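Task card 7
Instruction: Convert sequence to structure tokens.
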Amino acid sequence: MNGPERVVGSLQLAIRRAQLARRVRAVASGKPGALSVDLADAALDPGAVFLEVTRSLPAGSPALVRLVGALRSSGTIDMLLNNLVDADGRRRQTCAHLAGALRLEAAVPWLAIQLQAEERPVRRVAARALGRIGGARSAEVLLAALRSRRLPWSRLIIELARAAPDLFIEASLRAPQNVGVRAQLAAAAGLRGRRSALESLRSLAVEGTERERATACRGLGLLGGPTAVPEFSSALRHRSWRVRFAAARALGEIRDPSWLPELQETLYDPHPRIRYAAARALRLTRTAAAR
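Output:
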């Protein structure tokens, strides 16, 4: 395609996206009528268009219910679910994106299948969709994917933190079958920022493996607020530089002045990254104390 044709094609695509966005907003605002979407049009990417409208809508909101109802009336929802097991990976990716934008609970079993897909983009979009849909079913699927290691841990941790209902991660940290992914669960607990995970992270910071202790320290830093002395005191003296580094970084997030003496001692750590983290934590803590 030459230059002028490319410009015309891009303009036509922008017009079609704007037209779809206008129809989506009209239905979401309460205008009656069915809403049909061409799921075979990968270039249009209807999931992205719908997400612009639904991003700020809470699950179960009237506008979201109206959108799903309009798509169901036109048969689009049934086609979406069917296409989630289509042979065409691009079509599965498009449908997974739209299912996430709609927070379509009925799509969770099919999205679980796509977490095992051969195509990495399909797996990634399916994980994001599950994170957006949320709830116990989505969280269970993402936790199982963590154990199977079919996707990069970073993506699964982010989506599990988004999807998990209250106390799901805390309970999962204590479950014996999750011993192999406790570090990842600790990271998800930190990202959620719920104080209900405090005791689990404190325990892991003292009794876990090297990786678990480092991740638990980072999680405690994300939770913020003063924490008990034993966890960070022992972490700052751990034989692993990664644990010491995580503890120093976390104290920079917590910014509790009572830790200033220990951070001052950490400036003499033999590892340069830990000395840098301690200096940063000292600076942040002193600045916060001076306010």
